[in-house]
Structures are given as C-alpha cells and as structure tokens.
Design goal:
The protein is an alpha/beta fold. The protein is about 35% helix and about 20% strand. The strands form four sheets. Strands 1, 2, 9, 10, 11, 12 and 18 form a seven-stranded mixed β-sheet that branches. A seven-stranded mixed β-sheet has the order 7-6-14-15-16-13-17, with helices on both faces. Strands 3-4 form a two-stranded antiparallel sheet. Helix 8 packs across helix 10. The protein starts with a strand and ends with a helix.
C-alpha cells in the first residue's frame, strides 16, 4: 500500500498529527502496534465489567489550552461529543492529623487555605506563585509550546532577543528570585523550597507538586523544572474527559476515520525504509511494507526510533551517541486501580464531590526519605500516594452507585537485587502497602468495600507500551538539559530528524510528556516543509 503520510504510533499525538494532515488533504495511515488506539491516553475495564479505569494519563490540563480544544479545530466537541469535566477544587493535600491544604483555581482562596496552617507561609506562597508564574511565562515565551521552536542556527540569538523582548517579565522574575541566575539554573528544587517556606506541611505540599516532573527535588539543576511542575493548578485546574481519558483518543480516532484516514492496529513496525537518506516507508514485523510519498511522522520514543527502527543510515557526527546518552526520568510509578462499593470517606475532608485530585502527605523530610529509598531500588514501603476518585464527578465510569479509585505512587524501575523483573513478585506487596496507607486517611476503606483491584508496575508500563522504556511515561527526563530547545537533543528541537521526510513528535519532543497535543506544533513544521507557509489555523479554514 502507499500513502502520502505514515504516522508511527496511535497515541494521542499520532492521532492529532494524522487528523490535521488528513484534514489538510493528505492521505494518512496510522500504524499502531497495540490492539487499539490510544497509547498513553486510554481507558479500559481493568477490574470488573462496567468499571472504566485510565491506564495512562489521567489529567488533561495543558491540552485544553491548545487551539485543538480551545477553538475546537477538529470538531471533537461539537461533532464527536468530547466533554471535559472540571471539578471546582483541582487539588486537596491531606495530612494524617486531619488538616488539609485546598488548592483552588482562585489563588487567593488557596492562600487562605494555607493560612490556616501557617500565615507566614501563606504570604510566601503567594509571592512564590508570582515569581513562578513569571518564570513559566518567560520559559513559554522563549520556547512557545504552541509554535515551532526557532531554528537551531539562531537559537541562542533568538533566546536573548526574546529575553530582552520580555524584559518586564524577566525583571519581575528576578525581583522575587530566591537564587542568583546561575544558581537558579544549577540549583535544586529544595533550594527554592528552603528559601520560600518554613512550615513542614507547606514544604511537603510544595515538594510533592514539584516532584510531579519526575525528577528528584534534591538533584542538581531541578530548581526550574520543579518550580514549573508546581504551577498550573490555579490557572487551568484538574479535569478529564467524561467517560475516561480514552474518550479523547476515541473521539480523535472517529474524527480521523471520518476524514478518510486509515488506522492499522496490531501492526508492529520493524524498521523505517530509507533510500538515499530519505524516509520512504515502513516495514512491518509481519513482512509487509507500506510506502509514504511525502512524510513519515514518528511518535515513539526517540531511543526506540533511532535504536531499533532506523538502521544503517548515515547520521550526523555524535547524533546516535547523543540519543543513547539521553537520561530517563529519575523514577517510574505504580498505579493501583480499585473497583469500590462506595467512595472513600476521608477524615480531613467533609466531601470530595468537588475535588479532582487528592495527595496524602506527611512532611518534606519523609518524602525525601522515600526518594532515597527509590534511589536504592527499594519498593515503596510507606508510600504517600496520589488519589483520584473519578466516579464522584463522572458517574459514567462505573455501574450505578459503584465507584473507581486510582492510587499512584513513585517507584524505581529496577528493584535492588531483583532487577525490573522483580516487580512480578513484589506487585501485590506494594499494592497492599498503598491500600494500607489509604486506610490511615479514610474511615471506610475496609476489605469489604474493595470489589476488585488491578496494579500496573513500572515493568507493566514498559510491557504495554514499548515507548515507555524503563517505565518512563515521559519518554526521557524533564531535566533542564533536556527541556525546550534542548529536547530531545540540542540541534534537533523542531520536530525534524537527520533523515529527510522523517519527523518526530510526542513525549520525546518539546514540551514533553503528558496530554499536551504538541503534535499540532509538529504539523506546523511539517506543512512548512511541504510548501504550505503560514499558520496552520489559516490552512484549516482555506
């Protein structure tokens, strides 16, 4: 078979890239190795029939700011029924003594909540957010997540030009800066926390938020990634599609097919066909070949693409070694999915009907101790999990009156003395530890309330999705050296690769992992190379 464009990978980025290109008039084929589309944005009945659980990403925060959703460019809302549910309170941090910190979309309400624990830290938190928001805006101006990054040969000139252009933001940032610029770039996120906060509970709360970037908060060069990972709840909040995370990719799939696109599931790519330095198609493991006349767009891990799929091609000096040296996230995760008779009753919350995400916490030192255990390859023994109870705000995910619950905890990929395969024998032990910790914060999580359970370990993540190498759902780490115009590697941040007509998008590229819809930005680069100059939005309406 022959198409204009082949997209390798049927996750949300592959479906977005395919749908936009198909809408622009190209004949597109999406090739997906799994039995169904969705990749890291999928929902399945893991425990019992009728109980819908998200097997990958659970939060759709950044995608809602993309023109894909904001302007409904593909009609996912008006034509395919995509509906987002945004609870009033994005986050509740609960402590074992019954106290809590509630994060509201309104920053002032969050500050009021923190003031019940520490008035001094509440004032500091407001200033921290002013400083951090300016840092985030500055980073977005330098590397806009909605537009292709500047050309590499002028990237440093562009970098300083944009810094000058947004001097007002920069001056506000440096006015509140806790560290000199050099220390901010090389320091740890714990340095930032030490500067701003004193109360153990507030320190624990901010530490947990920063660690969502999947880097140790006490590692060097984590000050900026940790700060950026902490922000966003006030401006965007939590939220996910009605019916589960997979409702998003299901809508994309229907849109793509209605536009005339072709989806091949259960089709595993063995290599990219390259002739005279140009991508010409793909070869599948079943022996068949598919030709592409215009482009191939890969959404798989860059290490998978250039470690397995591209073989024997001439690449620029040091390109392959730079790809091999890319670091994975500092840790992976364990997810426990529960089917419940009734929702949990938390001792520190009167109701969870308007709460999206719940964090169980102690103090920052306990969290750091947990990270030290992960460094040594120890499974979580006294974890502090993140919790979602989606059926509270979306009853469609379970039979009437029943509920689902998601427990999420950081964990090492390789276990001390056992390696990654040791997870098969430690899975139930870690599941028990997570449920035991949940029991300490709730009044009704007795065994009789749990109808069924299902656990995904770091090894399970890798088995299900080969792009999650070492259980890394971010593909590669969000360390400062692998962010913005350094992602995936310096010189190749505009979604192109050294192979002509072979493009890359997805979690390996800017802005990184999560439900970002960044493939839309990659499409802008692709169509520019095809001769369609100007904004993608203009071409969609022409």
């Amino acid at each position: 078979e022959s198409f204009d464009v082949i997209v390798v990978g049927g996750g949300h980025n592959g479906l977005i890239a395919g749908s936009y290109l198909q809408k622009l008039g190209f004949q597109v084929c999406i090739v997906e190795q799994h039995r169904k589309i969705g990749g890291g944005v999928m929902s399945e009945e893991l425990t019992l029939p009728g109980f819908v659980h998200d097997t990958g990403a659970v939060t759709h925060q950044r995608i809602r700011n993309s023109p894909l959703i904001k302007d409904d460019e593909l009609g996912l809302t008006r034509k395919y029924g995509l509906e987002y549910i945004i609870p009033e309170i994005p986050l509740a941090a609960l402590f074992e003594d019954g106290t809590s910190i509630l994060v509201h979309k309104d920053l002032e309400k969050t500050v009021q909540s923190i003031s019940r624990i520490s008035k001094e830290d509440a004032i500091a938190y407001k200033k921290f957010n002013e400083w951090g928001e300016n840092l985030r805006k500055l980073m977005n101006r330098i590397a806009d997540p909605q537009e292709p990054l500047p050309e590499i040969d002028i990237e440093f000139r562009s970098f300083f030009a944009r810094v000058r252009e947004y001097f007002k933001i920069g001056s506000c940032l440096f006015k509140f800066s806790p560290l000199p610029l050099y220390s901010l770039a090389t320091g740890t996120f714990m340095d930032v926390i030490d500067h701003w906060f004193k109360h153990p509970k507030v320190r624990a709360f901010v530490t947990r938020m920063g660690s969502k970037g999947m880097v140790y908060p006490d590692d060097t060069a984590t000050a900026i990634p940790g700060t950026i990972a902490t922000l966003g709840s006030h401006t965007m909040g939590g939220g996910s599609p009605k019916g589960g995370s997979g409702a998003f990719t299901d809508a994309l799939g229907r849109c793509f097919v209605d536009l005339g696109g072709t989806i091949m599931t259960g089709s595993e790519v063995s290599n990219i066909l390259i002739e005279d330095g140009e991508a010409k198609g793909v070869s599948l493991k079943n022996g068949s070949k598919i030709k592409a006349s215009t482009a191939i767009v890969s959404t798989v891990n860059i290490k998978q693409l250039f470690g397995q799929f591209v073989q024997g091609s001439e690449l620029p000096p040091n390109f392959s070694s730079a790809v091999r040296r890319l670091k994975h996230s500092s840790y992976s995760s364990v997810s426990v999915h529960l089917a419940l008779k009734e929702p949990p009753v938390f001792k520190a919350l009167e109701t969870i009907s308007n709460v999206y995400r719940i964090e169980l916490l102690s103090d920052a030192e306990d969290l750091i101790q947990g990270f030290n255990e992960i460094r040594r390859g120890l499974p979580p023994r006294s974890p502090y999990p993140t919790i979602l109870v989606p059926t509270i705000y979306d009853p469609s995910r379970a039979p009437a009156g029943r509920h689902t619950l998601w427990l999420y905890a950081f964990a090492p990929y390789e276990l001390q003395g056992l390696g990654a395969k040791g997870w098969d024998q430690k899975k139930e032990e870690v599941t028990d530890a997570l449920i035991k910790k949940l029991n300490r914060y709730t009044a009704n999580m007795v065994p009789e309330n749990i109808l069924a359970r299902y656990t995904d370990t770091p090894l399970d993540l890798e088995r299900r999705n080969p792009s999650f190498i070492q259980g890394d759902h971010e593909h590669i780490s969000h360390t400062l050296s692998q962010m913005a115009f350094n992602r995936p590697i310096p010189g190749w941040s505009r979604y192109r690769t050294p192979i002509k007509k072979l493009y890359i998008c997805g979690a390996s590229t800017h802005p990184g992992g999560g439900v970002t819809g960044a493939a839309r930005v990659a499409v802008q680069t692709i169509i520019n190379d095809m001769g369609l100059k100007g904004k993608l939005s203009r071409h969609l309406h022409s």
